[in-house]
Amino acid sequence: MTKKIRWGILSTAGIAQYHVIPAFKRAENAEVVAISSLSGRAEEVAEAFGIEKAYDSYHEILDDDAIDAVYIPLPNSLHKEWAIRAAYKNKHILVEKPIALSSTDVLEIKQACLDNNVILMEAFMYMLHPQHQRVKTLIEEGAIGEVKHFESTFTFYLTDRDSNIRMEKDLGGGSLYDVGSYNIHAMRYILDDEPKSVSSQAVIDDVTGVDLSNVSYYTFDSGVTATLTSSFDHFHQNAYRVIGTEGIITVPYAYRPDNHGGLGEVILTTTAYETTETYMNDLYRDEVEHISYAILNNQAPINTLTNSYRNMRVLELTKEAFTTGKTVLIDPDE
User: Fold this and answer.
1) If residue 274 lies in a helix (H) or strand (E), which one and from where to where?
2) Helices 181-191 and 305-324 meet at what angle, rounded to 10?
3) pLDDT for 87-125, tens place per residue?
4) Which of 24, 225, 282, 316 has a Cα-to-Cα distance from 34 of 20 to 30 A?
5) Percent with pLDDT over 70 in the chain
6) CA dist 70 to 32, 60, 144, Å?
């Protein structure tokens, strides 16, 4: 029988109920044994999903010795606090993106994990879809010649603005930290490189002060450039393109292939032909199984804390660029 990591969940957030708890049910090496909520809904959600224990505080989950790891889908502003608390209770961690609100926060989380031999992964689940490895392989094989530009767009129209935490500045709201974080992560992952500068513009909500839309331009030492767009004001898109001297690779369902039944497409366009390859996976299940496997085997997950630090560094400097209106130089290891 496959050994299972026993998970606790901090909060009854929508992403937990709609995506991650069902994924745990499908996973072979993980199970949810407890859930907690400050809203009083833990028992209701536990009953709905057949979860053994329901707690009314997050501390109770961290104090439960029967729990090996915790999933943290709390508001962005609370990720740092509860990741550090979990690490010092020797719980391994899957935390929703962004991992924190600043690179300094990430360094504190990293130190807590190192001090307590805890494995943590920031939940950029898109990485585990096989379409992206295919893109990287095509680039390495020279299918589009020399890479010159990367474009990524992750947008949707946010309807419930009066009540959605994405519109709360103090909680780490705004399109950049929400969906723009995927764009930055994919840019770095697919290009396997770090940007050297960013210029950026944003549409700021007059009432809340969060960025509703953001367009950013990045340069790399290699000469490659990138343009990234995030928005709460546009029709839903979650795609990227890699443009080379001899062709283009398009990934139309880059970040949420689960909205298309797990379908991913890699479209290769050259002057001679166009091909479309399809790939399938169970994205959230694969995320759960991946981090659980890493814990069981005491190995680093695909998205390391070092990578999370570098991604956050680019995120916060992008925000600085649109706040100041200046081009900002990026040193990912600063």
Assistant:
1) strand 274-280
2) 120
3) 999 999 999 999 999 999 999 999 999 999 999 999 999
4) 282
5) 99
6) 9, 12, 42
For tokens 């069981």, the residue is 296
Q: Strand 92-95 vs strand 69-72: parallel, antiparallel, or unpaired?
A: parallel
Ramachandran area for residue 316 (φ above 0: left; ψ -120 to 50: alpha; else beta): alpha
What is the separation of C-alpha 72 from the centre of its chain, rounded to a whole number of angstroms? 12
The domain 128-285+313-329 having CATH identifier 3.30.360.10: the answer here is yes
276, pLDDT greater than 90: yes
Query: pTM (2 decimals)?
Result: 0.97
Write out the E strands in the chain. 5-10, 30-36, 53-55, 69-72, 92-95, 120-122, 147-157, 197-204, 211-219, 225-231, 233-244, 248-251, 263-269, 274-280, 328-329
> Residues spanned by CATH 3.30.360.10 within the chain?
128-285+313-329
The first and second tokens of residue 110, run together, are 């990293």
Neighbours of 309 (CB within 10 A): 21
The model's pLDDT over 1-53, given as tens digits with 9 standing for 90+, comes to: 579 999 999 999 999 999 999 999 999 999 999 999 998 999 999 999 999 99
Task: Reply yes or no on domain 5-123 having CATH 3.40.50.720.
Answer: yes
What whole-number distance in Å separates Cα of residue 318 and Cα of residue 327?
A: 9
Instruction: State yes or no: pLDDT of 332 exceeds 80.
Output: no
